[in-house]
Amino acid sequence: MIQEITFGKIHIGETHPVVIIAEAAVEHLGSLQVAKRMADAAKEAGADIIKFQMHMQEEMIPHSIRFFGGDMDDVLNIYNLSTEDHRELIQYCKQIGIQYLCTPFCAAAADALDQIGAEAYKTGSGELTNIPMQRHIAQKGKPMIVSTGMATIEEIQETVAALREENATFMLTHCTSAYPPQYEQIHLRFIPKLKERFGVLVGHSDHTPDIYTAIAAVAIGARVIEKHFTLSRTLKGPDHHVSLEPHELKQMVEAIRKVEAALGDKKLIHEDELPVRSWAHHSVVSVQNIPADTLIQPQMVAVKRPGGGIPAKFLEQVYGRRTKRELPKHTLLRWEDIE
Questions:
Q1: Buried-most residue among 182, 282, 290, 299 (CB within 10 A)?
Q2: What is the pTM for the complete model shown?
Q3: DSSP state of 131
Q4: Backbone angles phi, psi at 58, to 5 degrees
Q5: Computed from CA positions of residues 140, 141, 143, 145, in that sequence, does the dihedral angle turn out positive or negative?
Q6: In whole angstroms, what is the distance from residue 13 CA to residue 235 CA?
């Protein structure tokens, strides 16, 4: 039995609806009010979780990181939220009915989140191989969602082994840590392979600029979808080029709900199909007037729509049978019409 993940009002499992995470990252641009507006918008779009990030600059070598958003220190000097801001966000998310989640980028940030009441952790792909940090978080006894971008299968194995030694409750998310990745780099069919290899729930953290691969991931078994989110790409936040706007997030949520509703695995004749079946199937039909007490010859009958008569598959069994009554042209033959 694969272990389910539960925190707050969130239930992640194979029998639960797919959980959708709106990754706010630092698209709030350092404004608590914008962060709250993002929570509102994510809730309105139908997301289950809004996720933020907690950075602590003292845990990085100064001005050592340049990424697609610029110098990391310069970005965080402008965009970082305080621990108290996060405390307020936790309460605000509870108030409006969306689950708060956060990614800590160091053990100190994980401690701060623990102290202010965070109910679970999402670790980024960059932290996958930071096994001391993974153990540190696991020892807090709260559920973990662990991203696996830019890692080898051996590195994933090492982290999974460490988490299991700590008796952690965790799941993995498949990820390609390019911003954005090429579609050929995403390899969605690895999602069920991750599940089979490690016996855990698997989600998909998607960095494409659109919704298609996230929807496809649901069809192939992802139980969580994480997607970057912004109020508007015109704000030019660090992740704006791979972030969905509210109307796009809503479209993705609606598409996912429709796709997961369609993922049954049985072949049934549904009640809604019965009216179509009645006219779309074919029957044995007389193509000329056939008198009573006549041996039916092949040229007298054919297969035509609608259904309701002798099914088409029995055409040859009708040949040579004797009619019990007169069968005018275009009559749907029934078994009671022949001997």
A1: 290
A2: 0.91
A3: H
A4: -70, -15
A5: positive
A6: 36
What per-residue confidence (pLDDT) applies to 136?
Answer: 98
Question: Distance between CA atoms of 318 and 305, rounded to whole angstroms?
Answer: 17
Residue 199 phi, psi dihedral angles, 5° rounding: 65, 35
The backbone torsions φ and ψ at residue 25, rounded to the nearest 5 degrees and listed phi first, read 50, -125
Q: How many CB atoms lie within 10 A of CB 6?
A: 15
- The residue that leads in pLDDT, 224 or 59, is 224
Residue with tokens 């460490």: 162
Residues whose CB falls within 8 Å of the CB of residue 65, separated by 6 or more in sequence, listed in order: 71, 72, 73
Q: Residue 278: CB partners within 8 Å, gap ≥ 6?
A: 306, 307, 308
Q: Which of 228, 230, 223 is nearest to 245 (CA)?
A: 230
Tell which residue, 105, 136, 131, 99, has the closest CA to residue 118.
99
Topology, domain 15-261 = TIM Barrel (3.20.20)
Q: Does domain 271-337 have CATH number 3.90.25.10?
A: no
pLDDT band at 56 (very low <50, low <70, confident <90, very high): confident
Distance separating alpha carbons of residues 123 and 41, to the nearest angstrom? 24
User: How many Cα atoms sit within 13 Å of 287 on the Cβ side?
Assistant: 11
User: CB within 8 A of 217, min separation 6: which ones?
Assistant: 174, 188, 191, 203, 204, 206, 225
DSSP string, 44-58: HHT-SEEEEEE--GG
The DSSP code for 298 is: G
Residue among 54, 55, 19, 50 at smallest CA distance from 37: 50
Backbone dihedral region for residue 267 (phi beyond 0: left; psi -120 to 50: alpha; all else: beta): beta
Q: List the Cα angle 293/298/303 in 5-degree steps.
A: 105
Cα–chain center distance at 146: 16
Structural domain spans, the chain? 15-261, 271-337
Burial, 89: exposed, middle or buried (Cβ in 10 Å; 0-12, 13-18, 19+)?
A: buried
